[in-house]
Amino acid sequence: MQGCRVGGFTLIEVLVAMFVLALGVVGAAGTQVTAARLRQQAALESEAMQLAASLGARMRVNAAQMALADASNPYLQFTYDAADGAPPAPPVPCFGASVCDPAQMAAFDLYEAARIVHGAFPGGRIAVCRDGSGWDSAVQAFEWACAGAAGAPVVVKLGWRAPGSSAAAPVVAMVVAG
Q1: Chain centroid to CA 100: how far?
Q2: Residue (of 48, 70, 47) closest to 59 by Cα position
Q3: Contact 126, 83 (CB under 8 A)
Q4: For the chain, percent helix, then strand, then coil, each to nearest 5?
Q5: Which pTM was predicted?
Q6: Cα separation of 109 and 151, whole Å?
Q7: Residue 3 to residues 57, 90, 138: CA-CA distances in angstroms?
Q8: Measuring CA to CA, which residue among 48, 110, 112, 124 is closest to residue 73?
Q9: What confidence tens digit (pLDDT) does each residue in 43-88 have?
């Protein structure tokens, strides 16, 4: 009688196949995590751009306040850090049928911007100032400090704390007025 040899997989072959499959699953999971993080960052950047553009439009509409000298212009004195807590409510809520003067409207505009930063950006921070050189080429990033020169453009700077970071870094710096 001749020996019959049955073909099949050995235990070693099965283990190697399972190892290769496990590597593929881990790689796919890593890709999904990275994609989710990038999607969240892109959403924050998009919302930041919309907020900066909206605040810039509100500033341009409130010409009476923008015509004031820099030291008395409430827009150019605005800084808010979400780490300091929720922003204080404005003296007059300027929406709906409310009638507000330009100063009250500016206070309401700034409250709305701070409220959005507080609610939508983790560790968010916003500043409006005159700045001609907001980019620090040494570290390849925007900086919070403003040059403040009289002829410099008005810039809205917005940033938030990235995962693993202890401080908010400016991510968006949008020129809103010349």
Answers
A1: 30
A2: 70
A3: no
A4: 45, 15, 40
A5: 0.79
A6: 24
A7: 88, 93, 77
A8: 110
A9: 999 999 999 999 999 999 999 999 888 889 999 989 999 989 999 9
With both helix axes pointing from N to C terminus, report the angle between 102-120 and 11-61 in degrees, rounded to the nearest 10: 170
β-pair type (135-136, 154-160): unpaired
**Residue tagged 């890709």 (tokens):** 31
Please give the span between the terminal C-alpha atoms of the chain, in angstroms, as a whole number. Answer: 98
Strands (E), 27-132: 79-81, 125-130
3-state class (DSSP) for residue 28 = helix
- Residue 116: name the closest of 176, 44, 37, 56 by CA: 44
Report the alpha-carbon distance of residue 33 to residue 65 in Å, rounded: 46
User: What was the pLDDT predicted at 2?
Assistant: 66
Lookup: tokens for 85: 């807590």
- Supply φ then ψ for residue 93, to 5 degrees: -75, 110
Q: What is the rounded CA–CA span in Å between residue 109 and residue 61? A: 11
How far is residue 124's CA from residue 119's CA, in Å, rounded to a whole number? 9
Enter the tokens of residue 116. Answer: 């959005």
Residue 157 tokens read as 């700077």
